[in-house]
Amino acid sequence: MKAALWYAAKDIRVEDIDEPQVKPGHVKLKVAWTGICGSDLHEYLAGPIFIPADEKHPLSGEKAPITMGHEYCGEITELGDGVEGFEVGDRVAIEPIYHCGKCDACRDGLYNLCQDMGFMGLSGGAAGFAGYSVVPAGMAHKMPDGLSMEQGALVEPAAVALHAVRVSALKAGDTAAVFGAGPIGLLVVEALRAAGASKVYVVEPSPERREKAMELGATVALDPGEVDVVAEIRDASGGGVNVAFEVTGVSAVFKQCIDVTRYEGQALIVSIWEGEASLNPNDVVLSERNIKGTIGYRNVYPAVMELMTRGYFQAENLVTKRIELDDIVAEGFDVLSSEKSQVKILVKAPA
User: Fold this and answer.
1) 169-293 — its CATH code?
2) Residue 307, exposed/middle/buried by CB under 10 A (0-12, 13-18, 19+)?
3) E strands of 36-153, at which residues?
4) What CATH class does 2-158+297-348 carry?
5) Can you tell me the mean pLDDT for 213-222?
6) How confident is the model at residue 254 (pLDDT cuts 50, 70, 90)?
7) pTM for the whole structure
8) What residues does each domain of the chain span?
């Protein structure tokens, strides 16, 4: 079967590999759609970041080259020994987090904070940029009948956004700012709306993405190249927002994200970083602000799919391009690198 394999930065190859075989406790699925994630793009441009290049990942047992793709869904074609609760033909969205189940975080139920945490498609495994995938049954979540397969490919990124809002300090009626209106930032806007934020200020240089943010429920969308966004938002919100979400991975934006919050406000870091960011601790200390990070998600897939059935996180609002696996580099990664008007690109699995 065809699969897209990461070898090194700027070196992703579509190759023929052996079709994965089902194992005990696992399910095999025919992949339908897989989204290109911002983390995938980071690996393409500047990796390895998550990808194990020199040593095998402790949970997947693999290292580069690896099959990429962790935002995906498909139809179960085969059940491994011991698998219960699924049937051949079930449509499933994949929750691709590897966790050991033994460390302190896992025992506390915080499996996304596992000491060896990894992602199917970034840390190894028979992942989504391929015709077929094999995953532990615990990674598979049955999709409601009303959800399309395209929606299934958006469950993973929507889970990132919903988890970020859930672990933030935001309460219903609070104000928020979102720095970056890429796919995750836009999904955070929708998650904030679902959580009852009273006002959501978005900062984004792309006019197309600013327009999309407004369509999805932002109160105001500002161009950081045209206005002093910190001053504008602090003035409009009466002294600063309660919570600001950093979804860019840009050092200068990190400071703005802190400065735009009110006293005792929170800056929540959602993005994955390619390098370091500077911080003057006084920006935090003198206003008793706090900074929090978030990675992945936990125990949130059912809630995401329920919100999808209610009209949130809709593919028609977020998917801007659909491509074939053979075109994943030229029409996928390279386009995302150069065209900031793109939001979410979905890759159709080969037949």
Assistant:
1) 3.40.50.720
2) middle
3) 66-67, 71-79, 91-94, 97-98, 118-119, 132-136, 140-142
4) alpha beta
5) 97
6) very high
7) 0.96
8) 2-158+297-348, 169-293
